[in-house]
Design brief:
By secondary structure, the chain is of the alpha+beta class. The chain has ten helices and 19 strands.
């Protein structure tokens, strides 16, 4: 009976060991199934360091997400996922060994210090040692500086000049600023026109206009500020061309046409006054007129012959040296045109000579007579008329 009991116990123990041996593979099998189901969403513990990159790389290549995970600082063999980000999250490489992550806009942005970027199976791993983190992304972090520097390469400009000292420059962008791959990480755009004028511009603009006050070369700078406070300057030289002397002259006339018209009118009045109010002006004007319009000098039938008139004029000057133009015209009762013509001919034949005295008078002398050193005082027409009245009416009061 005792032997039977021992046999039963031994049989039960054998069965127990068999169950244990069978259950171990089953447990491993079900664990693998469980892990495979979890890997369809996010990878779990990747195990040894050599497997970490491959595990996350396979997941990212199939899903396109960006993963931030931590690494056990003690042995580096264990990982823990901190966050899974959408595939359209922007990862940018910034100056001073910074990595920026922008999810939707600048309000959802993060900044990290990085030490190394490694590529494994078309997935890029960024080491963030200060936080014991690693970022896995399906694309290489975008170099922010290089991206914005290329923008000004595909721009053109044209120039218009419609007004004096207004050089209108139109800058045409091949694409809008919003097409920059790093646009999501940019907080604002500005343009420094190089003449102390800086304006903010919208990222949807395809053209912007500025008016310079003078021609010359200007350095135009696109100023970009990212979500993290960094500023980037992209510059090009703009040559604002001079419009040319002829167009500049017409622009000056167009700008100052009213003052020019008023000045021209004033000069015209002054010229007319010089002709009408001075003997020299009348003499020169009518002499020129007789040369340009010969018919002007034709004497009417009732006038005396030319040679006789010329002799009269010459005789009057010879007997009255220093006589002025108006005195000859008044005493000989001649017309302006007739007197000017004959005086001109007498001077041309060197029978008489003339000079101007003061602003109003031109006086005539026979050729052989010297001009007196001092000008003599002359009465004006009103004063002469008064003297005439006095002579004709002695004792008048």
């Amino acid at each position: 009976m005792r032997e039977n009991m021992v046999k039963k116990i031994s049989y039960i123990m054998h069965i127990f060991f068999v169950i244990i041996l069978i259950s171990i593979p089953l447990i491993d099998f079900f664990n693998v199934l469980a892990h495979d189901g979890e890997n369809s969403d996010t990878p779990q513990n990747a195990g040894a360091p050599d497997n970490i990159s491959n595990t996350f790389s396979d997941f990212i290549n199939s899903n396109g997400n960006i993963i931030i995970f931590s690494i056990n600082s003690t042995n580096g063999n264990e990982t823990s996922i901190s966050e899974v980000l959408p595939g359209d999250t922007l990862v940018v490489q910034l100056p001073n060994n910074k990595i920026g992550i922008v999810i939707d806009d600048c309000s959802k942005s993060r900044l990290y210090d990085w030490t190394k970027i490694t590529e494994v199976n078309k997935t890029y791993f960024i080491d963030i040692p200060d936080d014991n983190l690693r970022i896995a992304t399906p694309y290489k972090p975008i170099n922010f500086t290089k991206s914005v520097n290329r923008f000004f390469l595909n721009t053109s400009y044209n120039q218009r000049i419609d007004k004096l000292d207004e050089y209108q420059i139109n800058i045409i962008f091949e694409n809008t600023l919003s097409t920059l791959i790093v646009d999501k990480a940019i907080s604002n755009y500005r343009i420094d026109w190089g003449d102390k004028n800086i304006i903010s511009i919208d990222s949807q603009l395809t053209k912007t206009t500025h008016i310079y006050k003078s021609s010359g070369k200007y350095i135009v700078t696109l100023i970009i500020t990212d979500c993290f406070g960094n500023t980037y300057n992209v510059s090009r030289i703009l040559n604002v061309k001079y419009e040319g002397d002829l167009k500049h002259f017409f622009l000056v006339v167009d700008r100052y046409k009213e003052p020019i018209a008023a000045t021209s009118f004033g000069i015209g009045i002054a010229i007319v006054a010089a002709i009408v109010l001075t003997e020299t002006g009348k003499f020169k004007f009518f002499t020129l007129l007789t040369l340009l319009i010969p018919m002007f000098t034709r004497i009417q039938k009732e006038d005396i012959l030319d040679h006789f008139v010329r002799g009269q004029i010459y005789g009057f000057i010879k007997t009255n040296p220093g006589v002025c133009y108006n005195e000859i015209m008044r005493n000989l009762d001649l017309k302006n045109g007739t007197l000017s013509y004959h005086l001109h001919m007498l001077e041309k034949m060197e029978m008489i000579k003339s000079r101007r005295e003061g602003l109003r008078y031109r006086v005539f002398y026979p050729t052989g007579m010297k001009f007196p050193e001092e000008e003599r005082y002359r009465l004006n027409e009103l004063q002469l008329d008064i003297l005439k009245i006095i002579r004709e009416n002695e004792g008048i009061s």
